[in-house]
Amino acid sequence: MKNIPQDQQDRKLEAEIQSLSAILPFFGLSQMTETPVILKGGIANHNYLIKAANGKAFVIKILINQAIDSVKNEVAIQKQLNKAGLISTAFIQNHDGSYLYEHDGIFAVVSSKIDGVHPKVVDEPLARDIGRALASFHQSVINIPYPHEGWLNKKEAARTLSLLPDSYLKRNAESLIKRGEFIYNKNLPTGIIHGDLCSTNLFVKAEGDSEVIAVFDLEEAEENLLLVDLARTIIAGCSDNSGRKLLLHLVRSMLDGYSSVRTLTQDESLFLSDAIKYTSGVCALWFLKNGFPEHAEEQIKRGQNLMA
C-alpha cells in the first residue's frame, strides 16, 4: 500500500484489524484472546498472528495484491506438497467448505501457525537446501486449477511495462528483460513454479539452521519456465550484504542443492545467466509498480553485476 496516502493506509489497516474478530468464527474457531500481531515481511499481503481461546495459534492472511481465484491454486499446491511429505501451510475450511472469508471488501484465509523462523542470513548450507526445496517443489507440484499469469510471466511483464511511466529504473529493467527474454524461444522445461521463493516465504527451525522445514505463500504459482523460478530464487537468496551483487559461492551451493533432486538440462545450464537477467528486470518492474524504487534498483544491480 505504499502508493496510497498515509491516512488511507491507516484507515484500511484499522478496518482490517477490526475484521479479524469476525474471521475466526467464520471458520468455526474460538475468538482471539490476545491483541493480534502483524507479521513483518509481507508486501503482497498482510499477515496477522492470532491466538484463539483454545490456546492454538493461527495466521490470518488478508489478501491485498493477490487474485482471489489464486486461493484455489494455493489449496491445490498445499495438498500436493503435503502428499509428497513437504510441509506447507494448510488453509482451514468453514462448515460450508469455503477456504475464503469475504466481507465488506476484506478477503482472508486462515491457517494454523507453523513453528519456525524466517532465516536472516543465507549461507552456503542453507542456500543448498533452498535449492533442494525448490527442486522438490518442481517435482511435486504438477497442476493448478486456476490459470494465472504471475509477475514473472512474460505477458505480465509486458503489461507492466506498458503501464509504468518512463524512468531511469524502468529503462534499465526493460533492458535486462530484453537481454534475457529470448530464453522463452529455447524450448526449455516448463512446469508449475513457486514464483517467489525467498527467505520471507520459507521457514527454518531456528536462526542458523540450514534445513528448510516449510515453504508457503504460493499465490504467484503459475506455469512458466522452471529456469525462471530458479533464477528468481537465486536473485532472492544469493546476494551480498549490499543487495546489489550475487555471490558465486552461494549460487553454486543453491545449484548443487537443486541438482540433487532435479538435474538441469544442458540448455538450462547454458542460459542460466540470461534467465537471471530477465528475472531481475521483471522483479524490478514489480517493485516499481508497487512503489518500492529502492528495491527495484537492487534487483537491477543484481542482474547487471551478476556474480562477484
N→C terminal distance: 34 Å
Helix/strand order: HEEEHEEHHHEEEEHHHHH
Helix content bin? 40-55%
Shape descriptor: globular
As a percent range, the share of strand residues is 5-15%
| Radius of gyration over C-alpha positions, nearest whole angstrom | 19 Å
Oligomeric form of this entry?
A: single chain
The total count of strands amounts to 9
- Name the average pLDDT: 91
Which strands sit side by side, in order, in the main sheet? 1-2-3-5-4
Number of alpha- plus pi-helical segments: 10
Largest sheet: 5 strands, antiparallel
Tell me what the structure shows:
The chain has helices at about 5-25, 70-85, 125-140, 155-165, 170-180, 225-235, 250-260, 265-270, 270-290, 295-305, and strands at about 35-40, 45-50, 55-65, 100-105, 105-110, 190-195, 200-205, 215, 220-225. With about 300 residues, it is α+β, with helices and mostly antiparallel strands. The strands form three sheets. The chain has a five-stranded antiparallel sheet with strand order 1-2-3-5-4, covered by helices on one side. Strands 6-9 form a two-stranded antiparallel ribbon. Helix 5 packs parallel to helix 10.
Question: What's the short version?
Answer:
The chain is an alpha+beta fold and 308 residues long.
